[in-house]
Amino acid sequence: MDVGTKVVDVAVIGAGPVGMTAAALLAARGLDVVVVERNATTSDAPKAISIDDEAIRVYASAGLAERIQRIIVPGTGTRYYGSDGAPLFQAGAEIPFRLGFPFKNPFAQPELERELFEHLKSTVDLRMNTELREIVQDGAGVDLRFGDGGSLRARYVLGCDGGRSTVREVLGVGMTGRSHDDVWLVADVLGDHHTERYGMHHGDPARPHVIVPGRDGRCRYEFRLQPGEGEAGAPPSFELIRSLLEPLRPITPDEVERAVNYRFNAVVADTWRIGRAFLLGDAAHMMPPFAGQGLNSGIRDAANLTWKLADVLAGRLTPGALDSYELERRPHVEETVRLSERLGRIVMTTNRRFAERRDELVRTALRSPEGRSYFEHMRYRPAQSYHAGLVVPGDLAGRPVGQPRAFDTSVHRTRLLDEVLGTGWALLNIGAAEDPEETQELRETLKPAYAYVTVDQHLPASRSDGPYLVDVDGSLDREFAGAHGRLLLVRPDRFVAAAWRPGERPDFTALGLPRREPVLSTS
Q1: Which DSSP string do the residues of 152-187 spell out, in sequence order?
Q2: How many CA atoms lie within 13 A of 75 on its CB side?
């Protein structure tokens, strides 16, 4: 390390939405963070178009919910149309507002990046127009060298620098998967008449296309191009844009905010951790857009890793706990990539016979309650849960915890669960008679927030260790219906780390907690 080189907790390479999300989460946990970006400004390219309730919940944990919600359309899901142009079904949340925010929300990525950038200007060290050239690791940290001759030392590095990641290239990490030959034209336009709060996927084999209305007359259109109409990476002509939009709306050149031709990739990095460096977002995985999960997957990466880094640096977890990042995230990402490819093949096919058969099968399935629920509640999306990693094996461990409303007796008002628990670890007593002694060790090591969840419309007979959370609309009872009589240790990312009944003593070894030295008697 050069004399005078600055040393920080975490260096984030890439000031795209995933990098800036990770930086905001780290800074909110008190870490010293530097963000390094090769470009002089944030991007103005038409990329992600939808963020889920899960993502907004993540932003809320960094104090960003208000900023993010002012740039979204509070959406309701996606409507799918058949080959004849008639609606097939509309997919949305099975339990609306389960996570405390609207379910599937259109937005403009340039606006998101500007909001994140403005927030970070006062919380982290932003270094724009700075290109990474070299990464050298040792047992205690990582030395970074840049094209302008500058350098930086960090205890950990996050590669969030997109599909053409310099971090991934410098560290020699390959990607496995495939690029698709189909070329799509994506155009963000102004002055549009669409006001729907849902995206529209048109499975017209003559011209598969997607329409996603935005705010203030903005709208995203995506069209599958036919051979010879355009090449990936080449700017589409206005005449092509006009001809594609002609059946839907008139357009003038000044109403085209941005447009690009591109191909989709379905690839995953061969490894996501290289010593003290980690890959997140498009640097770790890329997928077709048909499930709307590209950016959302990157935000999940950041939500999974950042609290672990903070806890390792604070001594609450051992460094080996960081191995759980890829162990937990890779299976869900790989399933989501496969789903995105399937949706592209099925929904956006150009084979008319296949499209008509698809519509027939969907309409048949919708006649049964099970089939209707499968499509309308998006049960084809892979569920996110962890079966390995920082979880104690058990029937409830690894599951995400929703954010129900509850009356909090400590402040005498109704609050969302995250408002009660904060952003760290949490220990929930779900109507159990007592807290066993092993909770004392957890409280000393992890310092979790604590709450007693009342069940069966009864308050506890006599307890003084509140707060008590009381159901007000059925959502609290529904969320914890399968956990009565248990204690739940909930991770900062709101997944259950362990569940047990009083009298049982879970083996917390899997959680990566530091070993406690026995106290020697002085008598």
Answers
A1: EEEEEEEE---TT-HHHHHTT--EEEEE----EEEE
A2: 29
- Rounded distance between C-alpha atoms, residue 287 and residue 177, angstroms: 10
Band of pLDDT at residue 4, cut at 50, 70 and 90 = low
- Residue 472 sits at φ, ψ, to 5 deg, of -125, -20
How far is residue 391's CA from residue 508's CA, in Å, rounded to a whole number? Answer: 8
The DSSP line for 97-130 is: TTTSS-SEEE--HHHHHHHHHHHHTTTSEEE-S-
Using CA atoms, how far apart are residues 354 and 349, in angstroms rounded to an integer?
8
Q: Which residues, in sequence order, are bridge partners of residue 425?
A: none
Residue 227 has what pLDDT? 94
Mapping DSSP to helix (H, G, I), strand (E, B) and coil, where does residue 309 land? helix
Q: Which two tokens stand for residue 331?
A: 């299976």
- If one counts every other C-beta atom within 10 angstroms of the C-beta of residue 197, the result is 14
Which DSSP string corresponds to 476-514?
Answer: HHHHTGGGTTEEEEE-TTSBEEEEE-TT----GGGGTPP
* Residues 417, 147: Cα–Cα separation, whole Å: 46
402-431 average pLDDT score: 96
Predicted pLDDT of residue 521: 43
To the nearest 10°, the Cα dihedral for 110, 115, 120, 121? 90
| Token output for 210 | 């997607």
Element (H or E) spanning 35, and its range? strand 33-36
The per-residue pLDDT for 464 is 60
Residue 395 CB neighbour total at 10 angstroms = 10
Please tell me the least confidently modeled range out of 66-80, 126-140, 179-193, 497-511.
Answer: 497-511
Write the CA distances from 331 to 34, 326, 396, integer angstroms: 30, 8, 18
- CB neighbour burial string for 239-260, b if at least 16 within 10 angstroms, e if fewer: ebbeebbeeeeebeeebbbebb
Interhelix angle 294-314/53-61, nearest 10 degrees: 30
Least confident range of 216-230, 368-382, 422-436? 422-436
